[in-house]
Amino acid sequence: MVKMMNKIIQKKQIVDAVKNIPIVAEKERWVVTLDKEEGSLFYSPKTIPNNSKLHQITDEYSVYFDKDFNPKGVMIESYGKNFIKHHKSFQKLSSEVFDDNKKISIAGSNKNKEKQSLFKALLESTLIKEIGTGMIVF
Length: 138
Known about the structure:
The chain is α+β, with helices and mostly antiparallel strands. It has helices at 2-19, 21-28, 79-86, 89-97, 113-132, and strands at residues 31-35, 40-44, 53-56, 62-65, 71-76, 104-106.
């Protein structure tokens, strides 16, 4: 019974933390980085704190948390090969936000700031929506 209660509390902490990503991201000035070589997308500060641990949240994304379950970054491991195929709204926007000629591209570094803001808002709402559907895998 205690184990189940701990799991319920942990799930609630994780859901609440994911819902707080937009606030934390703005406060800590997170950036969106696409590593085309690895196929991973990161939404995080430029450097993820060393004491953060990566937790798989859904089949599509993981979140870095500190010891107090504060979000410290998001990683979508198969952004180009999986995530984008399930979320069609990211396809065109990605090509408008990321530099095609770079292996590692930071959203907004050379592109329209309005598109960058739109991409971040779409990403945040997608993360929250997916956790709200109960797709948690941890």
